[in-house]
Amino acid sequence: MKFSHFALYAMIAIQPAVAWAQGTHSGHSTPAQTAQTPNASSTQGYRLANEAMHRNMDIAFSGDADVDFVRSMIPHHQGAIDMAKVALQHSKDEQIRKWATDVIREQEREIAEMQGWLRKKGVQ
């Protein structure tokens, strides 16, 4: 099948939206849990963080691509912070602890910047 450049670009551009609509969170799909999944407290913490992130990312879209991106990314970043806090609580690996600390610092900074940007735009 032969596609025009426009059709090909349109198909590529729509893939993230299709993935989002199918609940895959553009590559962040939640795999089906099996009976063998450990029920460690860290696992429970990661599950809770993921559930909250996905629930809070389910925003009412405004049609403004910039606003919708920022409003979606704030809970996405908060999810990363929450997961990093679980890692800090449970990990003994120094590299993981460093990454988790870095994630918390940088994601908190970006959330503050994004919230400021939304305020300037008059968006809540």
Radius of gyration: 18 Å
Structural class: mainly alpha
Tell me the series of helices and strands, N- to C-terminal.
HHHH
Mean pLDDT: 82
Bin the helical content.
over 70%
N- and C-termini, Cα separation: 46 Å
Largest sheet, in brief, is: none
Annotation field: number of helices = 4
Q: β content, as a range?
A: under 5%
- Would you identify the regions where 5 or more consecutive residues have pLDDT less than 50? 1-22
Shape: flat
> How many beta-strand elements?
0
Protein model, in words:
- With 124 residues, the protein is mostly helical.
- The protein has a domain at 39-124.
- 71% of the residues lie in helices and 0% in strands.
- The chain is built from 4 helices and no strands.
- It has helices at 5-21, 41-57, 65-90, 94-121.
- The longest helix has 28 residues, at 94-121.
- It is flat and about 45 Å long.
- The model is unreliable at 1-22 (pLDDT under 50).
Structure characteristics:
4 helices; single chain; flat; disordered N terminus; mainly alpha; 124 residues
Topology:
Layout: H1 5-21, H2 41-57, H3 65-90, H4 94-121
Helix pairs in contact: 2-3, 3-4
Short description:
The chain is mainly alpha-helical. It contains four helices and no strands.
